Amino acid sequence: MYSIKVLLISASLLLLNACSTAIDEYRGSTPTFSLKDFFNGELTAWGIVQDYSGKLTRRFCVDITATWQGNNGQFNEEFYFNDGTRQTRIWDISINPDGSVIGSAGDVVGQASGSSQGSAFNWQYTLTVPIDGNEYDFAIDDWMYALDDKRMMNRSYMKKFGVTVAEFSIFFDKSARLPSCTTT
What we know:
By secondary structure, this protein is mainly β. 11% of the residues lie in helices and 57% in strands. It has helices at 2-18, 35-38, and strands at residues 41-51, 56-69, 72-81, 86-95, 101-104, 108-117, 120-131, 134-146, 151-160, 163-173.
């Protein structure tokens, strides 16, 4: 009986992995997403966090200041959560000659890596998250989708042991200079 359970669990995990999306599936899709063009200057975005069951657990606003020197960029992100928590993340980003992207931040374990095709950008990394006085590492599978040249939707999946424990949805709008998180 134990062998059958292990086999069923293994088959289920293989099936789930087989259904995952690959960045190449977006080749040729439009509008084309450019990390360097979209994340340039000051941006404000709004998002939600949902737990494993889909329940909304937090809302947030994030102010981002992105600067570039050649293919090296820095993104300063200031998160403002509805429970009063603030968080800062500063990314150092490099776009390689082949178009792949690498990055690092203080709460990221090792290096993040990403690439884009057509209208999508996929960014993967391990994030250290403080929870109730302890720190835990989670795998982040971050997907950005250009809606047009001024708007982008970001979906991130936080995983532990291959299981999604939280999802983040973030909306960016550069169509007008919108107020920062501290003035909304």
